[in-house]
Write a structure and sequence with these properties.
This protein is an alpha/beta fold. The protein has helices spanning 5-15, 62-74, 93-101, 115-145, 150-157, 182-195, 221-238, 258-275, 288-291, 297-305, 309-318, 322-331, 336-343, 347-361, 368-381, and strands at residues 19-22, 33-36, 50-54, 79-84, 106-110, 166-173, 203-208, 211-217, 245-248, 252-253, 279-281. The protein folds into three domains: 5-113, 3-Layer(aba) Sandwich (Udp-n-acetylmuramoylalanyl-d-glutamate--2,6- Diaminopimelate Ligase, Chain: A, domain 1); 146-291, Reverse transcriptase/Diguanylate cyclase domain (Alpha-Beta Plaits), CATH 3.30.70.270; 297-381, Orthogonal Bundle (Arc Repressor Mutant, subunit A), CATH 1.10.10. The strands form two sheets. Strands 6, 7, 8, 9, 10 and 11 form a six-stranded mixed beta sheet that branches. Helix 13 crosses helix 14. The protein is elongated.
Protein backbone atom coordinates (compact mmCIF):
# COMPACT_ATOMS: atom_id res chain seq x y z
CA UNK A 1 0.00 0.00 0.00
CA UNK A 2 2.93 2.34 -0.60
CA UNK A 3 4.94 4.37 1.88
CA UNK A 4 2.45 5.15 4.63
CA UNK A 5 2.10 7.61 7.50
CA UNK A 6 2.85 4.69 9.78
CA UNK A 7 6.10 3.96 7.90
CA UNK A 8 7.04 7.62 8.16
CA UNK A 9 6.41 7.67 11.90
CA UNK A 10 8.57 4.60 12.50
CA UNK A 11 11.64 6.35 11.10
CA UNK A 12 10.76 9.89 12.17
CA UNK A 13 9.97 9.74 15.88
CA UNK A 14 13.63 9.74 16.79
CA UNK A 15 15.34 10.91 13.61
CA UNK A 16 13.12 13.97 13.11
CA UNK A 17 11.51 14.19 16.58
CA UNK A 18 8.12 13.88 14.92
CA UNK A 19 4.89 13.81 16.94
CA UNK A 20 1.55 12.44 15.74
CA UNK A 21 -0.98 14.78 17.33
CA UNK A 22 -4.27 14.15 15.47
CA UNK A 23 -6.02 11.89 12.96
CA UNK A 24 -4.75 8.58 14.33
CA UNK A 25 -7.25 6.62 12.22
CA UNK A 26 -5.39 7.84 9.14
CA UNK A 27 -2.10 6.23 10.14
CA UNK A 28 -2.29 3.72 7.27
CA UNK A 29 -2.74 6.37 4.56
CA UNK A 30 -0.13 5.97 1.84
CA UNK A 31 1.78 8.97 0.51
CA UNK A 32 2.05 9.72 -3.21
CA UNK A 33 4.54 12.60 -2.83
CA UNK A 34 5.77 15.29 -0.42
CA UNK A 35 5.29 19.01 -1.06
CA UNK A 36 6.52 22.08 0.77
CA UNK A 37 3.46 24.33 1.19
CA UNK A 38 3.67 27.98 2.21
CA UNK A 39 0.59 29.26 0.36
CA UNK A 40 -2.62 27.83 -1.11
CA UNK A 41 -1.51 27.87 -4.76
CA UNK A 42 0.19 24.48 -5.10
CA UNK A 43 -2.66 22.68 -3.32
CA UNK A 44 -4.98 23.45 -6.23
CA UNK A 45 -2.97 20.91 -8.26
CA UNK A 46 -3.09 18.06 -5.71
CA UNK A 47 -4.41 14.73 -7.00
CA UNK A 48 -4.70 13.02 -3.63
CA UNK A 49 -2.39 11.33 -1.08
CA UNK A 50 0.09 14.23 -1.16
CA UNK A 51 1.81 14.94 2.17
CA UNK A 52 2.10 18.67 2.88
CA UNK A 53 4.92 20.18 4.95
CA UNK A 54 4.82 23.79 6.15
CA UNK A 55 6.90 26.08 8.31
CA UNK A 56 3.77 28.16 8.85
CA UNK A 57 5.18 31.17 6.98
CA UNK A 58 1.89 31.70 5.18
CA UNK A 59 -0.30 30.19 7.90
CA UNK A 60 0.76 32.02 11.02
CA UNK A 61 -2.76 32.41 12.44
CA UNK A 62 -5.21 29.75 13.58
CA UNK A 63 -7.67 30.81 10.88
CA UNK A 64 -5.11 30.51 8.07
CA UNK A 65 -3.94 27.13 9.35
CA UNK A 66 -7.52 25.90 9.56
CA UNK A 67 -8.16 26.96 5.96
CA UNK A 68 -5.07 25.03 4.90
CA UNK A 69 -6.23 21.88 6.69
CA UNK A 70 -9.75 22.17 5.26
CA UNK A 71 -8.38 22.47 1.73
CA UNK A 72 -6.02 19.53 2.21
CA UNK A 73 -8.92 17.39 3.41
CA UNK A 74 -11.06 18.52 0.47
CA UNK A 75 -8.20 17.64 -1.88
CA UNK A 76 -7.72 14.24 -0.19
CA UNK A 77 -4.25 14.99 1.10
CA UNK A 78 -2.40 12.29 3.04
CA UNK A 79 -1.60 14.57 5.98
CA UNK A 80 0.16 17.71 7.17
CA UNK A 81 3.50 18.18 8.95
CA UNK A 82 3.84 21.49 10.75
CA UNK A 83 7.33 22.79 11.53
CA UNK A 84 6.59 24.33 14.94
CA UNK A 85 8.58 26.79 16.99
CA UNK A 86 8.83 29.95 14.90
CA UNK A 87 5.77 30.96 12.85
CA UNK A 88 3.52 28.48 14.65
CA UNK A 89 4.25 27.85 18.33
CA UNK A 90 1.59 25.21 18.93
CA UNK A 91 -1.48 23.71 17.24
CA UNK A 92 -4.83 25.01 18.62
CA UNK A 93 -7.01 22.33 20.21
CA UNK A 94 -9.95 23.05 17.91
CA UNK A 95 -7.78 22.16 14.89
CA UNK A 96 -6.68 18.95 16.57
CA UNK A 97 -10.34 18.08 17.16
CA UNK A 98 -11.17 18.93 13.54
CA UNK A 99 -8.41 16.64 12.21
CA UNK A 100 -9.59 13.84 14.49
CA UNK A 101 -13.13 14.27 13.20
CA UNK A 102 -11.97 13.81 9.61
CA UNK A 103 -9.27 11.20 10.40
CA UNK A 104 -6.71 13.56 8.87
CA UNK A 105 -3.12 12.95 10.07
CA UNK A 106 -1.60 16.06 11.66
CA UNK A 107 2.04 15.86 12.71
CA UNK A 108 4.70 18.22 14.03
CA UNK A 109 8.48 18.46 13.90
CA UNK A 110 10.50 21.07 15.85
CA UNK A 111 11.99 24.13 14.19
CA UNK A 112 15.52 22.75 14.43
CA UNK A 113 14.81 19.93 11.97
CA UNK A 114 16.26 20.45 8.49
CA UNK A 115 13.15 20.04 6.32
CA UNK A 116 15.00 19.67 3.01
CA UNK A 117 16.80 16.54 4.28
CA UNK A 118 13.58 15.13 5.69
CA UNK A 119 11.64 15.67 2.43
CA UNK A 120 14.47 14.14 0.37
CA UNK A 121 14.50 11.11 2.68
CA UNK A 122 10.74 10.58 2.30
CA UNK A 123 10.83 11.08 -1.47
CA UNK A 124 13.41 8.32 -1.90
CA UNK A 125 11.40 5.95 0.30
CA UNK A 126 8.17 6.70 -1.60
CA UNK A 127 9.88 5.91 -4.90
CA UNK A 128 11.38 2.66 -3.60
CA UNK A 129 8.10 1.47 -2.09
CA UNK A 130 6.28 2.37 -5.29
CA UNK A 131 8.65 0.15 -7.25
CA UNK A 132 8.04 -2.70 -4.81
CA UNK A 133 4.26 -2.22 -5.04
CA UNK A 134 4.40 -2.54 -8.83
CA UNK A 135 6.22 -5.85 -8.48
CA UNK A 136 3.67 -7.05 -5.91
CA UNK A 137 0.76 -6.04 -8.14
CA UNK A 138 2.21 -7.92 -11.09
CA UNK A 139 2.70 -11.07 -9.02
CA UNK A 140 -0.85 -10.91 -7.61
CA UNK A 141 -2.28 -10.58 -11.11
CA UNK A 142 -0.21 -13.58 -12.14
CA UNK A 143 -1.64 -15.54 -9.17
CA UNK A 144 -5.16 -14.68 -10.39
CA UNK A 145 -4.58 -15.36 -14.09
CA UNK A 146 -2.15 -18.30 -13.78
CA UNK A 147 -2.87 -19.97 -10.42
CA UNK A 148 -1.05 -23.15 -11.42
CA UNK A 149 2.22 -21.27 -12.01
CA UNK A 150 2.92 -21.07 -8.27
CA UNK A 151 6.69 -21.17 -8.45
CA UNK A 152 6.80 -17.86 -10.31
CA UNK A 153 4.48 -15.70 -8.21
CA UNK A 154 5.27 -17.28 -4.81
CA UNK A 155 8.91 -16.31 -5.19
CA UNK A 156 7.98 -12.67 -5.84
CA UNK A 157 5.42 -12.44 -3.02
CA UNK A 158 7.38 -14.30 -0.33
CA UNK A 159 9.10 -11.16 1.09
CA UNK A 160 5.78 -9.33 1.47
CA UNK A 161 3.01 -11.79 2.40
CA UNK A 162 2.27 -14.90 4.42
CA UNK A 163 1.67 -17.05 1.36
CA UNK A 164 0.18 -19.92 3.39
CA UNK A 165 -2.17 -17.55 5.23
CA UNK A 166 -5.59 -16.22 4.29
CA UNK A 167 -6.30 -13.98 1.31
CA UNK A 168 -9.38 -12.01 0.37
CA UNK A 169 -10.18 -9.82 -2.62
CA UNK A 170 -12.25 -6.63 -2.55
CA UNK A 171 -13.32 -5.00 -5.81
CA UNK A 172 -14.43 -1.36 -5.96
CA UNK A 173 -15.90 0.36 -8.99
CA UNK A 174 -18.09 3.23 -10.13
CA UNK A 175 -19.98 4.12 -13.27
CA UNK A 176 -17.76 4.26 -16.37
CA UNK A 177 -14.55 3.59 -14.41
CA UNK A 178 -13.02 1.78 -17.39
CA UNK A 179 -13.85 4.73 -19.66
CA UNK A 180 -12.02 7.32 -17.56
CA UNK A 181 -8.70 8.65 -18.81
CA UNK A 182 -5.62 7.62 -16.89
CA UNK A 183 -5.31 10.89 -14.95
CA UNK A 184 -8.95 10.94 -13.85
CA UNK A 185 -8.84 7.29 -12.78
CA UNK A 186 -5.57 7.80 -10.89
CA UNK A 187 -7.06 10.72 -8.96
CA UNK A 188 -10.05 8.58 -7.97
CA UNK A 189 -7.69 5.75 -7.01
CA UNK A 190 -5.79 8.04 -4.65
CA UNK A 191 -9.02 9.18 -3.02
CA UNK A 192 -10.24 5.62 -2.45
CA UNK A 193 -6.90 4.65 -0.93
CA UNK A 194 -7.15 7.56 1.51
CA UNK A 195 -10.51 6.17 2.66
CA UNK A 196 -9.08 2.66 3.20
CA UNK A 197 -7.88 3.15 6.75
CA UNK A 198 -6.18 0.53 8.93
CA UNK A 199 -4.67 -1.35 6.00
CA UNK A 200 -0.95 -1.07 5.30
CA UNK A 201 1.50 -3.72 4.14
CA UNK A 202 -0.87 -6.63 4.72
CA UNK A 203 -2.69 -5.43 1.61
CA UNK A 204 -2.14 -4.22 -1.94
CA UNK A 205 -4.28 -1.83 -3.99
CA UNK A 206 -4.31 -1.59 -7.78
CA UNK A 207 -6.47 -1.05 -10.87
CA UNK A 208 -7.17 -4.33 -12.63
CA UNK A 209 -9.70 -5.44 -15.24
CA UNK A 210 -11.96 -2.38 -14.98
CA UNK A 211 -12.08 -2.35 -11.16
CA UNK A 212 -9.98 -1.11 -8.28
CA UNK A 213 -8.76 -4.20 -6.46
CA UNK A 214 -7.69 -4.56 -2.84
CA UNK A 215 -5.99 -7.82 -1.85
CA UNK A 216 -5.63 -8.40 1.89
CA UNK A 217 -3.57 -11.01 3.71
CA UNK A 218 -4.22 -12.47 7.17
CA UNK A 219 -6.97 -10.02 8.10
CA UNK A 220 -9.98 -11.23 10.07
CA UNK A 221 -13.44 -10.90 8.59
CA UNK A 222 -14.33 -8.42 11.34
CA UNK A 223 -11.30 -6.24 10.52
CA UNK A 224 -12.05 -6.30 6.81
CA UNK A 225 -15.69 -5.42 7.44
CA UNK A 226 -14.56 -2.41 9.47
CA UNK A 227 -12.21 -1.34 6.66
CA UNK A 228 -14.70 -1.60 3.78
CA UNK A 229 -17.71 -0.19 5.64
CA UNK A 230 -15.54 2.68 6.85
CA UNK A 231 -14.31 3.29 3.32
CA UNK A 232 -17.88 3.40 1.99
CA UNK A 233 -18.94 5.79 4.76
CA UNK A 234 -16.01 8.16 4.19
CA UNK A 235 -16.46 8.08 0.41
CA UNK A 236 -20.14 8.94 0.74
CA UNK A 237 -19.30 11.83 3.04
CA UNK A 238 -16.32 13.31 1.24
CA UNK A 239 -17.17 12.37 -2.34
CA UNK A 240 -21.00 12.50 -2.52
CA UNK A 241 -21.03 13.06 -6.29
CA UNK A 242 -19.35 9.68 -6.97
CA UNK A 243 -21.26 6.46 -6.27
CA UNK A 244 -18.93 3.59 -5.34
CA UNK A 245 -19.89 -0.10 -5.50
CA UNK A 246 -17.90 -2.66 -3.51
CA UNK A 247 -17.89 -6.45 -3.73
CA UNK A 248 -16.09 -8.65 -1.20
CA UNK A 249 -14.94 -12.14 -2.20
CA UNK A 250 -14.69 -15.18 0.05
CA UNK A 251 -11.78 -15.62 2.45
CA UNK A 252 -9.38 -18.23 1.04
CA UNK A 253 -6.40 -20.00 2.54
CA UNK A 254 -3.13 -19.98 0.54
CA UNK A 255 -2.14 -17.63 -2.24
CA UNK A 256 -2.86 -20.34 -4.84
CA UNK A 257 -6.58 -19.84 -4.17
CA UNK A 258 -6.52 -16.08 -4.71
CA UNK A 259 -8.20 -16.52 -8.10
CA UNK A 260 -11.28 -18.02 -6.42
CA UNK A 261 -11.68 -15.05 -4.09
CA UNK A 262 -11.24 -12.73 -7.06
CA UNK A 263 -13.95 -14.47 -9.10
CA UNK A 264 -16.36 -14.24 -6.19
CA UNK A 265 -15.55 -10.59 -5.53
CA UNK A 266 -16.27 -9.92 -9.22
CA UNK A 267 -19.68 -11.56 -8.87
CA UNK A 268 -20.40 -9.51 -5.73
CA UNK A 269 -19.42 -6.17 -7.28
CA UNK A 270 -21.51 -6.92 -10.39
CA UNK A 271 -24.55 -7.60 -8.22
CA UNK A 272 -23.88 -4.52 -6.07
CA UNK A 273 -23.78 -2.35 -9.17
CA UNK A 274 -26.91 -3.98 -10.60
CA UNK A 275 -28.85 -3.41 -7.37
CA UNK A 276 -27.34 0.00 -6.67
CA UNK A 277 -25.98 -1.19 -3.31
CA UNK A 278 -22.76 0.27 -1.97
CA UNK A 279 -21.45 -2.97 -0.45
CA UNK A 280 -22.11 -6.68 -0.99
CA UNK A 281 -20.41 -9.79 0.36
CA UNK A 282 -20.35 -12.83 -1.93
CA UNK A 283 -20.90 -15.16 1.01
CA UNK A 284 -24.21 -13.41 1.79
CA UNK A 285 -25.64 -13.53 -1.75
CA UNK A 286 -27.61 -16.75 -1.30
CA UNK A 287 -28.58 -18.48 -4.55
CA UNK A 288 -27.08 -15.58 -6.49
CA UNK A 289 -23.65 -16.95 -5.54
CA UNK A 290 -24.27 -19.75 -8.02
CA UNK A 291 -26.01 -17.71 -10.70
CA UNK A 292 -23.41 -14.93 -10.84
CA UNK A 293 -20.64 -17.52 -11.21
CA UNK A 294 -22.18 -18.88 -14.44
CA UNK A 295 -20.25 -17.57 -17.43
CA UNK A 296 -22.73 -18.85 -20.01
CA UNK A 297 -25.04 -15.84 -20.44
CA UNK A 298 -27.07 -17.68 -23.08
CA UNK A 299 -27.85 -20.47 -20.63
CA UNK A 300 -28.99 -17.95 -18.03
CA UNK A 301 -31.20 -16.21 -20.57
CA UNK A 302 -32.78 -19.52 -21.57
CA UNK A 303 -33.42 -20.49 -17.95
CA UNK A 304 -35.07 -17.11 -17.35
CA UNK A 305 -37.27 -17.10 -20.47
CA UNK A 306 -38.27 -20.70 -21.21
CA UNK A 307 -40.25 -21.50 -18.02
CA UNK A 308 -42.12 -18.19 -18.16
CA UNK A 309 -42.67 -18.13 -21.93
CA UNK A 310 -46.45 -18.87 -21.78
CA UNK A 311 -46.98 -16.04 -19.28
CA UNK A 312 -44.74 -13.59 -21.13
CA UNK A 313 -46.69 -14.23 -24.35
CA UNK A 314 -50.05 -13.91 -22.57
CA UNK A 315 -49.07 -10.63 -20.89
CA UNK A 316 -47.81 -9.20 -24.16
CA UNK A 317 -50.98 -10.15 -26.01
CA UNK A 318 -53.49 -9.17 -23.31
CA UNK A 319 -51.53 -6.44 -21.50
CA UNK A 320 -51.75 -8.58 -18.38
CA UNK A 321 -49.56 -9.02 -15.30
CA UNK A 322 -49.42 -12.78 -14.89
CA UNK A 323 -45.61 -12.72 -14.72
CA UNK A 324 -45.70 -10.31 -11.76
CA UNK A 325 -48.53 -12.24 -10.08
CA UNK A 326 -46.61 -15.52 -10.19
CA UNK A 327 -43.48 -13.84 -8.85
CA UNK A 328 -45.35 -12.55 -5.80
CA UNK A 329 -47.12 -15.89 -5.36
CA UNK A 330 -43.78 -17.70 -5.19
CA UNK A 331 -42.20 -15.02 -3.01
CA UNK A 332 -45.02 -15.32 -0.46
CA UNK A 333 -44.94 -19.12 -0.54
CA UNK A 334 -48.37 -19.47 -2.13
CA UNK A 335 -50.25 -17.05 0.12
CA UNK A 336 -53.18 -15.63 -1.85
CA UNK A 337 -53.86 -13.10 0.90
CA UNK A 338 -50.30 -11.75 0.83
CA UNK A 339 -50.36 -11.41 -2.97
CA UNK A 340 -53.75 -9.69 -2.78
CA UNK A 341 -52.47 -7.15 -0.25
CA UNK A 342 -49.26 -6.37 -2.11
CA UNK A 343 -51.02 -5.98 -5.47
CA UNK A 344 -53.98 -4.08 -3.97
CA UNK A 345 -56.24 -6.61 -5.71
CA UNK A 346 -59.25 -8.56 -4.43
CA UNK A 347 -58.29 -12.10 -3.39
CA UNK A 348 -60.88 -13.63 -5.73
CA UNK A 349 -59.16 -11.87 -8.64
CA UNK A 350 -55.83 -13.30 -7.50
CA UNK A 351 -57.36 -16.78 -7.24
CA UNK A 352 -58.69 -16.46 -10.79
CA UNK A 353 -55.32 -15.31 -12.09
CA UNK A 354 -53.44 -18.11 -10.35
CA UNK A 355 -55.82 -20.75 -11.76
CA UNK A 356 -55.25 -19.31 -15.22
CA UNK A 357 -51.45 -19.21 -14.64
CA UNK A 358 -51.41 -22.87 -13.57
CA UNK A 359 -53.42 -23.75 -16.66
CA UNK A 360 -51.02 -21.91 -18.97
CA UNK A 361 -47.97 -23.50 -17.33
CA UNK A 362 -49.52 -26.96 -17.09
CA UNK A 363 -48.64 -27.40 -13.41
CA UNK A 364 -50.33 -27.03 -10.02
CA UNK A 365 -47.20 -25.50 -8.43
CA UNK A 366 -47.82 -27.62 -5.34
CA UNK A 367 -44.47 -29.39 -5.08
CA UNK A 368 -41.08 -27.73 -4.52
CA UNK A 369 -39.76 -29.39 -7.68
CA UNK A 370 -42.58 -27.82 -9.68
CA UNK A 371 -41.89 -24.32 -8.38
CA UNK A 372 -38.09 -24.41 -8.59
CA UNK A 373 -37.65 -23.63 -12.34
CA UNK A 374 -39.87 -20.57 -12.01
CA UNK A 375 -38.15 -19.37 -8.84
CA UNK A 376 -34.77 -19.64 -10.54
CA UNK A 377 -36.16 -17.80 -13.57
CA UNK A 378 -37.16 -14.88 -11.35
CA UNK A 379 -33.76 -14.88 -9.64
CA UNK A 380 -32.09 -14.62 -13.04
CA UNK A 381 -34.47 -11.86 -14.17
CA UNK A 382 -33.40 -9.86 -11.10
CA UNK A 383 -29.68 -10.18 -11.91
Amino acid sequence: MGFTIQDMMLISQEQYQMRFIAGNNGWSTSISWVHMVEDMVIIQHFWGKELAVTTGLGFDTAEKLQNLIKELIRRHGAGLIVNTGYYIEQIPQNLIDYCNEYDFPLLTVPWEIHLADMIKDYSIRIFMQGTADQEISGALIQAIEQPANQKEYRKKLLPYFDEDGTFQVVLITTEHLDEMDTVERQKLSYRVQVYLEKITHNGNFMYYDSNFMLVVNDITEEELDEIVTGMARRANRRMPDVRLFTGVGSRMTDISNLHASYSRAKAAVQMAKKRNESLLYFDKMGLYRLLYMVDDSRLLREMAEEPLKPLLEYDQKHKGNYVDTLELYLRHNGSIQAVSEEMFTHRNTVIYRMNKIKELLGTNLEQTEERLPYQIAYYIRAM
